[in-house]
Structure formats: C-alpha cells, structure tokens
Amino acid sequence: MYIFEIAKKLGISDSKCIIRKAAELRRLCDIQFDSSAIGVGEICKAIICLEIAASGWEEVIFDRSTAIKLSGMSEKAYNRSLNAMRNGLGVKTKLDIRELGIRFGCVRLIPFVQKGLSLYKDRFLASLPASRRTSADFTRPVFTAVAFYLCAKIHKLKIDKLKLIGVCGTSESEFFFVSTSMKDLCHDVYGILKEKKDPKDVKGN
Predict the structure, then answer these.
(1) Helical (H) or strand (E) element with 65
(2) Most CB contacts within 10 A, which of 35, 40, 183, 194?
(3) Contact call for residues 61 and 102 (beta carbons, < 8 A)
(4) Are 98 and 59 in contact (CB under 8 A)?
(5) Structural contact between residues 115 and 182, judged by C-beta atoms closer than 8 angstroms
(6) Cβ(104)–Cβ(152) under 8 Å?
(7) Which H or E element spans position 23?
(8) Nearest-angstrom CA–CA distance, 3 and 53
C-alpha cells in the first residue's frame, strides 16, 4: 500500500509536505536498519512514517486509532514499534501541553500541568548538587506527558495511559520512573481529589 493511499485513509492526503516527509523517512528506514527485525511490516512502516512526519505539524491531528486499525497491530505493539522506529531514525519527539490538551479533550488542564511541571523542575534541581544542575535535561517529552497524566488523575479525568506513552515516544518503564519521581517531589500538588469531575468543569486559575 502506497503512502499516499494510507494518508488518504487517515484523512491527511492534502498535506503534501507530510507525505513527502513520510516518504523520506521510509527511505531512511530501508537504508539505516531492517524494520522487519523489530516486527514492523511494510504497511505498518508506512503508517508510522506518516505519524512521525505529522508530529512536526501542529495544525495536523493524526488519527491514531485509525492508524492502529490499518496497521493490524494492537495498540501496545504499535506504540512499541513506533518508539523503536523513532529511536532507529534518531527522531526526537516534541510534545506540547496544548496539543495534549486538545488531543485528549482536557484543554482546561493546561494551566495545572504548566504549574505542576514548573514546580517539579524547581524541586528536582534543588535536590541536585550545584555541579549537576546545569546538566539536568527536562526537554524529554516524558516529563510533560507524566505531568499531564497526573494532573488528569487528580481531577478524576480518564486518560488512556498507553496512548499517552505512545504519543510522547517513551517506554512504560521510563514513564513509571518519572511518575514516581514527580509524585515524590510534588506530593502536595498531586494529591487525589475526592469528587469526580468532567473536563468541562475543570477551570484554571
């Protein structure tokens, strides 16, 4: 199945730049590593290349659920393959809090996520020796994803964790590690609220 045909099924065939980028990524896959060795077939490879290409365009919302159906894989297997191909291609994932809010229908959580993430960074840096503070790296998308997930959790909003892990391009083990660290350092922020809330009722300050 050609990339354009898949893009058409995903509703992004009008995005010529994404299709060109996906085709380029697919060629790089064939040159740099054997995708079949990580269990990724030709159709799934094309789909994943389209998702990676689409991630660079904020105005394009990639239809992940349809992509998984077209790939013929389970969501967990798809996420694993996506992360493996990102690593193989050396692609770094960029994650924006607003994009997560839109994608998961929790836009009103954005200010909570921003405040929680900022507090975690401050407390994490304060816990390090002065000599190590300059080397601390918070650019990895897993930090944004975990802060978003924990904020949603305290407001009793359901978030698909596996989908979130796939979006941020991390592993379940790294997500768990950062989550534990964030809850330990910001226990006062990530306490559990007693009442369930609808996303529409969550308001920022």
Answers:
(1) helix 64-71
(2) 40
(3) yes
(4) no
(5) no
(6) yes
(7) helix 16-32
(8) 12
Tens digits of residue pLDDT in 25-49: 999 988 887 777 777 888 888 999 9
- Confidence band, pLDDT 50/70/90 cuts, at residue 100: confident
Give, in degrees to the nearest 5, the angle at Cα 8 between 91 and 68: 55
User: Mind giving me the DSSP string for 84-113?
Assistant: HHHHHHTPPPP--HHHHHHHTT-GGGHHHH
d(CA 96, CA 23): 25
Q: Which residue is it, tokens 């064939």? A: 30
Residue 106 amino acid letter: C
Q: Cα(159)–Cα(205) distance, rounded to whole angstroms?
A: 22
Burial of 107 (0-12, 13-18, 19+ CB in 10 A): middle
Distance separating alpha carbons of residues 93 and 52, to the nearest angstrom:
8
